[in-house]
Design a protein that fits this description.
This protein is an all-alpha fold. It is built from twelve helices and no strands. Helices cover 47% and strands 0% of the residues. The chain is globular, with a radius of gyration of 19 Å.
Length: 257
């Protein structure tokens, strides 16, 4: 009897998806393997072809935030997120099938595609917030975020802390809320504590501010830049502007595992 209660509660914890932030040993192994390998940019470009369907050939995602900008992200962050998504340590049902070994490959391909993506220039026109509470947003940022994400939101390569400057506002909002709700399992535990008391207003203000921090000019693409590595890519019209998507059309919320 005792045993079955135990089992039942264990199943509940697993199903509720509200486990505290954690590391997946499987993902960490892949992360460490990928870091030791020498990336092959040319192969990374080949691997990226399949990713371009959602993240666009430029790696800019959509202004609506349905797909994040990945261009210019730190390579260690890209590797960690890919390993986590594949190990189901971060729910991403839209992308999960594309991370299978048959499509993505192993640690070498992860290292290759991460190196390719991280050197892509970032969009000069990311999605931003309403812009009406930026003084408060800046103050919150300086007091709560710089220690890990850096003064400008540039992230930290050694700690695989994401660069967040110039990211689409709606994507930042969704991730931040999921981290706060402990829905994103691979979240940083200290960050979860740090943002515990953030109100609705605080969240919007700080992320609006972050979305408007301009990455340094050497990381930004020129207006109108198109990735020359994918000259024949068939672009749906909506991918050009991002305007064809609204927040309601974002991929459905992940179901709990
Ligand atoms: C079918 C669409 C789709 C494809 C194909 C796809 N992705 Fe994604 N990807 C997404 C979505 C949607 C998200 C954001 C999920 C969320 O909001 O939690 C994402 C998130 C990511 C992230 C996390 C970004 C961050 O800032 O944490 C990385 C890295 C990434 N994708 C890389 C890739 C790579 C590399 C490929 C190709 C091997 C790829 N994706 C293929 C849809 C896709
Ligand atoms: C103690 C360090 C720490 C603090 C403080 C912190 N973060 Fe984070 N944050 C992280 C780490 C590490 C990750 C990535 C976790 C992972 O998935 O591996 C992250 C992830 C994020 C993401 C998701 C990024 C993406 O590309 O998916 C956002 C958005 C974010 N943080 C915003 C903030 C903001 C805004 C603040 C301040 C209010 C903040 N963080 C404070 C460490 C921190």
């Amino acid at each position: 009897m005792r045993k079955s209660i135990w089992t039942a509660s264990l199943i509940c914890i697993v199903l509720s998806g509200h486990a505290v932030a954690r590391e997946s040993p499987e993902a960490m192994r892949e992360y460490e393997q990928a870091l030791e390998l020498t990336p092959n940019l040319e192969n990374g470009r080949k691997v990226y072809r399949i990713c371009a369907v959602c993240h666009t050939p430029e790696g800019w995602g959509l202004e609506s935030g349905a797909y994040p900008q990945v261009a210019g992200q730190l390579s260690t962050v890209l590797i960690k997120q890919l390993a986590d998504i594949r190990a189901r340590n971060r729910d991403n049902p839209t992308m999960l099938p594309f991370t299978s070994p048959s499509l993505l490959g192993g640690a070498q391909e992860i290292a290759d595609v991460a190196a390719y993506i991280s050197q892509l220039p970032m969009t000069p026109r990311n999605g931003v917030g309403p812009g009406n509470d930026l003084v408060w947003g800046e103050r919150l940022y300086k007091d709560n975020c710089t220690e890990c994400h850096g003064e400008l939101g540039e992230g930290n390569l050694e700690d695989h802390t994401p660069a967040i400057f110039g990211q689409h506002y709606r994507y930042l909002l969704r991730q931040f809320e999921w981290i706060k709700m402990e829905r994103r399992r691979n979240a940083d535990e200290k960050m979860v504590k740090q943002i515990h008391n953030f109100s609705h207003r605080d969240i919007r203000a700080v992320l609006d501010y972050v979305s408007r921090i301009k990455p340094p000019s050497e990381k930004l693409a020129k207006e109108g830049w198109r990735n020359p590595d994918f000259p024949n890519f068939a672009r749906p019209h909506s991918l050009h502007s991002g305007a064809g998507y609204t927040i309601d059309q974002r991929p459905s919320r992940p179901r709990r595992p």
